[in-house]
Design goal:
The complex is a heterotrimer of chains A (176), B (199) and C (216). With 176 residues, chain A is mainly alpha-helical. Chain A has helices at residues 15-33, 40-54, 56-61, 63-66, 79-97, 113-134, 138-147, 151-167, 172-175. The chains are: A mainly alpha (176), B mainly alpha (199), C alpha/beta (216).
Chain lengths: 176, 199, 216
């Protein structure tokens, strides 16, 4: 049976084992680079870089973006940008080999495709604000900061999951 | 060779980029393997039907936390040279609350949205666009947030420092809490997926 | 046993053992090269003036980190714009990037100077401190003054300072008759620690209170 047969996707890996694998990747980042993983930072660098391209003055006047601009005026050489490119490649490879790659808009049974796309866009926008304030997201704060016992990261993690459970019933229709 | 290798000059910026790619590929690989590229599976966490997010995240935290502790303890890794995300009490708490709302609505987080998009999921791409837009907007109208953003700074504050406990004791505590959490998660999952008639 | 159970047991054992294993941090070694540090002090490479710092902040100098080593109360009452607070005992375990330029300041200067020695001992190279501390910032940037009868050269220099001051929302003043009349004169022996203070001791909070009252 071909693993590339997309009609028969492979079962997901054991979450504990995959988690240990992920933990070893995180540990490797500590040992090799002296830093952890991240995701939202790549988005901030990209946004900063985009703003620089449109208007360098505007980028400088934003206290947030100014911090992401290098001496030569660019913002594209953030470590996280390369890391997130890797994430995309790794995700694609795993999906492909497991027969899970398919063009699809994943959604619950009671929401339309458009509805799902709007929710995804909106949810992403909200997370963008949250991640900027918190200096990270589940990868950079919860995972990395969590493993390194950073107080702010644990605060972020607890706050995020608490609110998610509160909001979930309200958006039940999107998923269940 | 002492670790962190980069901190001790084992390689330069080009090596760092290669490391970023390799580490990123492995990161994306494990996320997808456990199904974190699927918004439906991921959102199961919030309806207690599928607690993969919790199991995966805390298995990763335990592994990296124990690994960092012990490699530090035996002198292989200079733990003080590993960058600990800095603490800003108020913005990180508020940021977390805001982030959680978006997470429940969108069903993916920034990292997993890239995995989803890489698996062909249009919703993943939509979330990435939303994320980019949200960050861009926040950056452009950042001035009113600036003061709050830098408030309540505590530097690289760790739980052991805050609680005045030895690092290893906190590690032990987190391990125990996580293991109890895993047991509870298995029970909760069994209960709630049966209730909804799901796999 | 399944792989998961093996890992779970291993995590438990390693976790409990960690509680008895001591500290995961390598001993903090600082090397003080006294001759090198003394030379830097002599050549005045160890500190910056408030005016220089103000210029760096205004220009958004890459990698600049302004570090306030005072107490939370002092920081909340007044701090240099963009400054982050890292108390002196957390400072030595803080991680800075070698590309960052660190400028330390305290109330009047001594604690920042000590912190400068610590960070240099730990190997950081681009470290400076504000010799006159927060008081110097207040005197040069928040409320710079130009005496009546000042020389032309001083007046020209004052224009630059005044522009910087205005950028930070300060109130430059010309025509002050005597600096010692002014409540903003730098005290002879600034006290850094928050010990119980006599009423006449000048702190940045009392000085800033006078500045704010004088404002709009």
């Amino acid at each position: 049976m071909s693993r590339l047969d997309t009609r028969r996707p492979a079962p997901y890996a054991n979450p504990y084992l995959a988690g240990v694998g992920l933990g070893l990747v995180l540990l490797a980042a500590f040992v090799v680079m002296g830093r952890g993983l991240g995701a939202s930072g790549a988005f901030t660098s990209t946004a900063a870089g985009t703003t620089v391209m449109m208007s360098p003055a505007k980028a400088q006047s934003s206290a947030l973006f100014a911090g992401y601009v290098n001496a030569d005026g660019g913002a594209w050489t953030d470590w996280l940008i390369f890391e997130i490119i890797g994430v995309t490649i790794g995700g694609a490879a795993s999906a492909w080999l497991a027969g899970r790659f398919r063009f699809e808009i994943e959604r619950g049974p009671h929401i339309s495709r458009v509805g799902r796309l709007v929710a995804a866009f909106g949810g992403g926008g909200i997370m963008g604000l949250g991640a900027v304030l918190a200096r990270g997201c589940t990868s950079g704060q919860a995972l990395t900061g969590g493993a390194l016992l950073s107080v702010g990261s644990w605060l972020f993690m607890i706050g995020a999951f608490a609110v998610a459970y509160v909001v979930a019933p309200a958006v039940k229709r999107a998923w269940l | 060779m002492r670790a962190p290798f980069f901190e001790f000059g084992a390689f330069g910026d080009q090596g760092a980029i290669i490391a970023a790619l390799v580490i990123g590929v492995a990161f994306g690989w494990f996320l997808e393997r456990s199904g974190m590229g699927s918004a439906r599976k991921l959102s199961g966490q919030f309806y207690l039907t599928d607690l993969t997010v919790f199991k995966m995240m805390f298995s990763a935290i335990l592994t990296a936390m124990l690994g960092a502790f012990w490699l530090g303890r035996i002198g292989v890794l200079d733990l003080s040279r590993v960058y600990v995300p800095e603490t800003f009490l108020a913005p990180q708490l508020v940021g977390g609350l805001v982030f959680g709302a978006g997470f429940a609505i969108g069903g993916l987080c920034p990292g997993t949205s890239c995995v989803a998009a890489a698996s062909g999921r249009g919703d993943g791409l939509a979330l990435m666009s939303g994320m980019f837009s949200g960050v861009l907007l926040t950056g452009l109208v950042f001035d009113p947030l600036q003061r709050f953003y830098v408030s309540t700074a505590r530097g690289s504050l760790t739980l052991p420092q805050l609680l005045h406990l030895p690092y290893g004791v906190v590690v032990a505590g987190v391990v125990c809490i996580a293991i109890v959490g895993f047991r509870v998660a298995e029970a909760v999952e069994a209960r709630f997926s049966n209730a909804l008639g799901r796999q | 046993m399944t792989a998961t159970q093996v890992l779970g047991n291993a995590a438990f054992v390693l976790g409990i053992a960690a509680a008895f294993a001591g500290s995961p941090y390598a001993e903090q070694h600082g090397r003080i090269d006294v001759e090198q540090l003394a030379a830097m002090v002599r050549h005045e490479d160890d500190h910056v003036t408030a005016t220089e710092l103000a210029g760096w902040i205004k220009d958004r100098r890459a990698g600049l980190r302004v570090v306030d080593v005072r107490s939370l109360e002092e920081y909340d009452n007044f701090h240099i714009p963009t400054a982050e607070r890292i108390p002196i005992d957390s400072l030595v375990s803080a991680r800075f990037s070698p590309s960052e330029t660190i400028v330390l300041y305290s109330e009047g200067g001594p604690h920042a100077a000590q912190a400068w020695v610590f960070l240099r001992a730990l190997g950081y190279e681009k470290v400076y401190f504000l010799r006159g501390g927060a008081f110097e910032w207040i005197e040069q940037i928040v409320s710079p003054t130009l005496r009546i009868g000042a020389s032309a050269k001083d007046s020209v220099a004052f224009e630059t300072t005044a522009a910087l001051s205005r950028y930070f929302g300060g109130t430059p003043q010309r025509g002050v008759t005597s600096v010692t009349d002014d409540a903003l004169a730098i005290p002879r022996a600034p006290a850094d620690s928050g010990s119980s203070a006599p009423v006449s001791r000048r702190t940045t909070s009392s000085v800033m209170a006078k500045v704010r009252r004088r404002g709009c």
